[in-house]
């Protein structure tokens, strides 16, 4: 399965950084959070980050526009239904993450990959909240995400 659409849960520091680098890599991204003000702040942080890149000469204004156009926002987790990859970047609270993954398991298409951005929580325990443990992965982006080198 080719990954084209990425759904990011969480518009805070990690989530907006993940959304930014995903859009910079050419993916269509939907960034979500529980409140409109959170996704608005996340988009503002992305714009500020891209503006810093323009100031440094590592990004052109037209590229910024293209990147920003690849990012949509929502407060409805049901919008993850068409995602090929879902990256959860919620607070490091195991019960919260398990609840999110249980919901994603019901919403997302069968071949979607579900990823948790965590540095310390057991992936197996999070995956057990789904009926697709083999499609659940752990990833660990470093902060700040946009300056992380692959």
Automatic annotation (TrEMBL):
Pfam entry (one): 3HCDH_N
Alphabetic keyword roster: Oxidoreductase
SUPFAM superfamilies in alphabetical order: NAD(P)-binding Rossmann-fold domains
InterPro entries xrefs: 3-OHacyl-CoA_DH_NAD-bd, NAD(P)-bd_dom_sf
A molecular function (GO) term: NAD+ binding
Gene3D superfamilies: NAD(P)-binding Rossmann-like Domain
Transmembrane feature ranges: none
Domain 3-hydroxyacyl-CoA dehydrogenase NAD binding: 6-149
GO terms under biological process: fatty acid beta-oxidation
PANTHER family recorded: 3-HYDROXYACYL-COA DEHYDROGENASE FAMILY PROTEIN, 3-HYDROXYBUTYRYL-COA DEHYDROGENASE
The protein's name in its UniProt record: 3-hydroxyacyl-CoA dehydrogenase NAD binding domain-containing protein
Species: marine sediment metagenome
Lineage: unclassified sequences, metagenomes, ecological metagenomes
């Amino acid at each position: 399965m080719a990954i084209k659409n990425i759904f990011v849960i969480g518009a805070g520091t990690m989530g907006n950084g993940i959304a930014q680098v995903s859009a910079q890599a050419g993916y269509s991204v939907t960034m979500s959070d529980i409140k409109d003000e959170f996704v608005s702040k996340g988009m503002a942080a992305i714009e500020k980050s891209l503006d810093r890149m323009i100031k440094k000469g590592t990004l052109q204004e037209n590229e910024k526009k293209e990147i920003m156009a690849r990012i949509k926002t929502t407060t409805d987790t049901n919008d993850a239904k068409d995602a090929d990859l879902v990256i959860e970047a919620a607070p490091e609270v195991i019960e919260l993450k398990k609840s999110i993954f249980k919901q994603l398991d019901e919403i997302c298409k069968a071949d979607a990959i579900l990823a948790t951005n965590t540095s310390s929580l057991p992936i197996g325990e999070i995956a057990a909240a789904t009926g697709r443990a083999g499609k659940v992965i752990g990833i660990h982006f470093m902060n700040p995400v946009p300056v992380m080198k692959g």
